[in-house]
Amino acid sequence: MSDRANALALAEVRLTPVLVADPPLLNTQGVHQPYTPRLIIEVVTEGGVTGLGETYGDAGYLGLAEPLAVSLIGRPVTDLNGLPALAAEVCGDVAAATGPDAVDVGGLRGVRTADKLRLSVLSGFEVACLDAWGKAAGLPVHALLGGKVRDSVEYSAYLFHRWAAHPGGRGERDDWGAALDPAGVVAQARRFADTYGFTSFKLKGGVFEPAQEVATIKALAEAFPGRPLRLDPNGAWSVATALAVADELGDVLEYLEDPVSGTARMAEVAAALAGTGPGRGPGAPPGGARLPLATNMCVTTVDEIAEAFARDAVQIVLSDHHYWGGLRATRELAAVCAAFGVGVSMHSNTHLGISLAAMTQVASTLPGLRYACDSHYPWQTEDVLTERLAFHDGRLPVGDAPGLGVELDRDRLAVLHRRWLADDGTLRDRDDAAAMRRADPGWTAPAVPRW
After folding, report:
1. Phi first, then psi: what are they for 135, rounded to 5°?
2. Which among 204, 322, 351, 376 is annotated as catalytic?
3. Is 439 exposed, middle or buried (0-12, 13-18, 19+ CB in 10 A)?
4. CA distance 445 to 451
5. What does 90-153 look like in DSSP terms, one character per residue?
6. Which of 120, 168, 336, 432 has the CB geometry, 3.0–4.6 Å to 29, for a possible disulfide?
């Protein structure tokens, strides 16, 4: 092996689970916990270069990450094509959810499976390897992915119904206040627009009766005329309810995200909507015949693509490099979507700056990305970077610094890791229903359809 190849071999892999402050954001499952687990991955080459990655930090993910970290020692950071087979070989299975409507609350991304968990872990290591490779080569990650096609990436304001504080004073306080009615959500949107320059808005729905959420979208449309709006109830509605909402909001929504649960129901809604809506989104079918349906729940693996596309169940796939298996898999998904005339954008879960930097790098390389990406990042008051990523005019610039272009703040990482160590285990797995029981002891995650 040449000296250069030796320098790119992995000498050390460090895994640091952390707990990150999260506001009391509401969704159909319950409410975010006061702290969310994330996993920070560092890969160190023989040449002394460190690459950074980030993914979910729940116990199930940690159990898979640990053997994969050990198995990577001695392998070059450039051996990305070998990562999936290696992960399949060394990562044991984790119990999947049961029932056709069982939802993985970590991102509300459809049924939890062992394959999804493994790909989510794999994604963090792939990003870390790309970061290290880029730093060693003096190239940005987007160059390793074929080069950027845009100099900035647009993001949307991610709006939530929320409480002013977590029950019992838990967690970290913020100054956002409650948003439990249309006026509160509009005020939240104005702050996002004024602070970050966002010009498109997504509302997390499935929290209140559909009529109230329809009223909220109409209030947003009045407050921000002509701006792209999205609504995502995380599959909480019946087909009939979804069609009734689409009838009310078809002239103001850019797209409707996961109004119902599962590909079969999504296909039923899509078929009923065909020919009835204005097709406002730039990724709408030729002729703009209908209100597009987007998903991050029923198309989350390669195996789910064929049925959804054959049945025309979705018109936009919201990718997430964490559960598709990394940045290169995201590019492959985008290519498949382009081949079938399906739009593509990006989903977000609670994340830190490493994940946002990775999202931005891959998003910059996708020619067909015509919708603003989602991001929870403005809600996160904590980070592990020396400098937070800053939105301007609703966009993040795509730099040419080597790797991801971000630097780890070890002191801050240590603080968030100590919080994880001090936890008694109740917060190390995200459970929005358990968090809701702090306010409502009888709460259980609602079955779908909820309305």
Report:
1. -65, -40
2. 204
3. middle
4. 14
5. HPPP-PPP-STT---TTTT-SS--HHHHHHHHHHHHHHHHHHHHHHHHT-BHHHHTT--S-SEE
6. 432
Instruction: Compute the distance between CA of residue 214 and CA of residue 223 in angstroms, rounded to an integer.
Output: 14
322 belongs to the catalytic site: no
DSSP string, 421-438: HHS-SSSSS--HHHHHTT
Instruction: State both tokens at 101.
Output: 């409507």
Angle at 374 between CA 373 and CA 378, to 5 degrees: 120
pLDDT reading at 244 higher than 70: yes
pLDDT tier at 132, thresholds 50, 70, 90: very high
Average of per-residue pLDDT across 94-119: 63
Model pLDDT for residues 253-290, shown as the tens digit of each residue: 999 999 999 999 999 999 999 864 333 333 334 344 48
pTM score over 0.90 = yes
- Token pair, residue 110, equals 């459809």
Nearest Cα to Cα of residue 411 among 391, 378, 390, 382: 382
Q: At 413, which amino acid appears?
A: L
Closest of 266, 251, 199, 258 to residue 232, by C-alpha: 258
Are 135 and 49 in contact, with CB atoms under 8 Å apart? yes
- Residue 118: phi and psi, rounded to 5, are -65, -40
123's tokens: 């994604």
Dihedral sign from CA coordinates of 162, 166, 169, 175:
negative
In single-letter form, the type of residue at position 157 comes to A
Whole-number Å distance between alpha carbons of 196 and 194:
6
Closest CA to 189 of 203, 207, 173: 203
E-only strand ranges, 312-385: 316-319, 343-346
Q: DSSP letter at 227?
A: -
Q: Which amino acid belongs to residue 127?
A: V
Higher pLDDT residue, 186 or 95?
Answer: 186
Q: 204 catalytic, yes or no?
A: yes
pLDDT > 60? residue 107: no
Residue 339 CB contacts under 8 Å (≥ 6 apart), including other chains: none
What does the alpha-carbon distance between residue 126 and residue 132 come to, in Å, rounded to a whole number?
Answer: 10
The token pair that represents 373 in the structure block:
């990406």
Would you state the pLDDT for residue 115? Answer: 86
pLDDT score recorded for residue 288: 46
Catalytic residue among 32, 322, 347, 351: 347
Helix axes 239-249, 210-223, angle to 10 degrees: 20
Q: What is the mean pLDDT of residues 69-88?
A: 96
Q: Checking DSSP bridges between strand 157-160 and strand 201-204, what pairing results, if any?
A: parallel
